[in-house]
Amino acid sequence: MRPLLLSLPLLSLGGCAMLMPGPNPDQAWIDLKPQDGQAIQASRVDNQALADSHYLQVTPGHHELEVRLEFDVGGTDIGENSTSYRRTCLLKLAYGDFTAGERYQLEAGGIGFRPWARLYDEQNREVAKARESRCGDV
Q1: What is the pTM for the complete model shown?
Q2: CA angle (39, 40, 41) in 5-degree steps
Q3: Nearest by Cα to 115 from 77, 63, 61, 62
């Protein structure tokens, strides 16, 4: 009985992993990669809300992506004796050459108060930079 109880958490983790679909070869797959201690979620593609915020797949061609980034602003960036706080921003990234079957990586983070995000292709070349859309209560 004890081995069964110990294996239940592992089995439930495997079930969660199965919920993530595999890449569609007719679309481009975009992995979301935040820096340590930060969180990123897919929000919209071409102004359409997404059902799942953990991954992005898009058809070939031009698309505008919107992601929600949460990052820490250090106390030293605010002022003397200040404590850090969590900032949330929406970032938009436009790229005109998504290729079917290719896997892209969207890396994001924050420097001081400023969020950033960059899109890399499979050869790890930067192909696009995001612009800050808005920050605050998003």
Answers
A1: 0.78
A2: 130
A3: 77
